[in-house]
Design brief:
heterodimer; A: Rossmann fold; Rossmann fold; 13 helices; B: alpha/beta; TIM Barrel; 17 strands; disordered C terminus
Amino acid sequence: MNASRIPTPPDVAWQQKHLLDVDVLSLAEIQLVMRTTDAMKEVLARPISKVPALRGTNVTILFYEASTRTRVSFEVAAKNLSADVVNIAASSSSVTKGESLVDTIRTVEALGADMIVMRHGTSGAPYLAAEVFSGSILNGGDGWHAHPSQALLDLYTMRAHLGDVRGKKVVILGDVLHSRVARSNVWSLTAAGADLWICGPTTILRGFDTWAGRWASGGAPGHVGFTVTSDVGAALRDADVVMALRLQRERMDAGLLPSLREYAARFGLTRERLAVAKPAALVMHPGPMNEGVEIAPDVAVLDRSVITEQVTNGVAVRMALLYLLAGGHPEAVTNA
Amino acid sequence: MPDLRVGKMVPLLEISRAWLVDPVGEREGPGEVVVRDGILEAVTWLQGAEADGIGPDGVLVLPGFLDIHVHLREPGNEDAETVASGLAAAAHGGFTTVCAMPNTTPAADEPGVFARVAGAAATSGSPVELLLHGAITVGRGGERLAALGELADAGAVGFSDDGSPVKSAIILRNALLYAGMLGLPIVEHAEDVTLTAGAEANEGLVATILGLKGWPAAAEISAVERAIAILDSVRADAPGARLHLTHLSTAGALDAVRRAKAAGLPVTCDVTPHHLGFTDEWVAGARRWAWEALDGAGTARDPWADGALVARPYATACRVNPPLRGAVDAAACLASLIDGTADAVVTDHAPHTAVDKETEFGLAAHGISGVELAFGVLLAAVAAGRLPLARAVAALTVGPAAVLGARPGRRGAARGLVEGEPADLVVVDAGDRWRVTADALASRGKNTPLLGRELPGRVLLTVAQGRLAYRDVAGDASGS
């Protein structure tokens, strides 16, 4: 661990029972997650990358939306900490029989869950779950609202390459309107002091201009403002990080965009567009990618593309979050 | 009258040293009233030394309130509310007359449903008068006109497909023409549903941050402007045509009504306590009044920046159609009451079961249970110096009566403190506060974001048509 790169205030304690969004995290808490993730990376580097930290803890992974990478990432993370893992996919559960979310959470609790990692298609659903569940809820993505573990792994990946992101130009390019990744990244990156730019066509930026405007003279306490634009060239100029977001075909059906072809031509992340960014600018994508739409295939595989590193770091960040929510202390991980 | 039961005639009630408000006589001040054998026998205005120390912050005596927009859920959804529980809730809120919307199951699109609802009101024993709106279209389906004439013969006071707008412009036009012939208003829920498909919260900062699909103000404004244009086009053919726009929630829609009224069109409108008192911040977890969410320059504050978020976000009690708007729109609702653009306050009382509300925000039923809390919200605005008490009372009495076109002499039409008429009044202790709890609400619908919070203005007594409608058992009615 390089302690000089990641400042660690000595007296920070993890205060959160649940992790529903990153908006409630102070910068010190975010740094604690980063520091704990460093410790988890060390664990992952061992020949046997498993510690008994969550032995006897039941982690139920309750996903109401199809997902492979996030679900597997949480499952691997929990197993690396020796937790007992129960997987519930909504399509194969009683949800399709009309059982309410509240009933499902109570049932999962009765079956012994200590923590629930939850993904849901409706914004805010984890807040309802947190109200009825006596253990901890870790939000694995809710509607358009939040994806805290993704934002934290994104930040971790940026810091691994750039050091402190304060003042670094980070561009999120694409469909932010429907993106929980974008919203959580706004909170974490403005807390970390990044120069955040959000870019995309006006129809799928809607509302973010209002948000940026409200934060123009200083954001929420502990957060800096950010910039919203449809001018890709201005957004990418001298960027340190460019993160492209997935564009879904449904957006065309809703009349938000004329065509995938037009989107790719005007907003796709290509080598030509990337040329105005800093030479070593990181290329990121939360996945799954539509290559040739929001990101050109040759960009995704550039040396400075850290897309697969995001996946690896995702396991470590999720280990850190599970560990902190279970009441662990970062210093104790390697001895656990 | 310790033993008097709800529904019984009030033998003798003397209220001394109270603050009276009479919107018919356009007078308010210290006074006394005497009710004998159900009749308002004497109204005495106190002068000089006798009036010392009596103010509008103590016991108020007001005409019984009229709410022209409630949902009583019977028939079809009695788990959420029945006529009996709804009338009890109305009396607790100070209302002596309510007008039920026809979006029951089945919809009140023919007189048989009216008869059933009226029967339930009669057997409830409540003296609160129940008026009925009929549906505009069959099954509220928006395609064929309901039995408007038969419903009028059965006592309908207006027609509405509330819960949904009349989608088809030609149906709306024909309904205005036909209802105009019958002398009754069309009560329109103005919403362009192509702009609100899947919408969850008022389009703006709160919806953006919470990741909720935006519900644009333009959906209401464009529907209001369309309805007004159609009204204008039928005026020559149907001089009796009247359009009433209910639960307006945006500055733009209220401006459109203001212009239409100035042009002499027969249009009226109402606003709700929740749209003038609450804001979309409440969805994020704020609970301050709308007027506290404006800064000195009249722009909305940012609850994330100033620490106003006190409750958990996504409370489904805040999910309502139209949605809670921003503080600027809420201020426009309040201003419309003061300048007379809005003719009435309605509660849009929309009780729901816990099952329909204890769910994900985007899946929860729309509506706030509000008939018991409306006057308290208005009193909070009065206490904050944002609304004259006389305007608040007028918007709950003479205002809605004028919307219905109630003629003097008809039951409950006076809405004033008129000697010699059956007593129809509410006694409120404006200086007292009470905590809103599930148990304290007579409605079966406990779906209000005010649950657990304190409201000013305890209703001590409601008398409808000379009969006891509600009595606060804990409080002191200052009478005998």
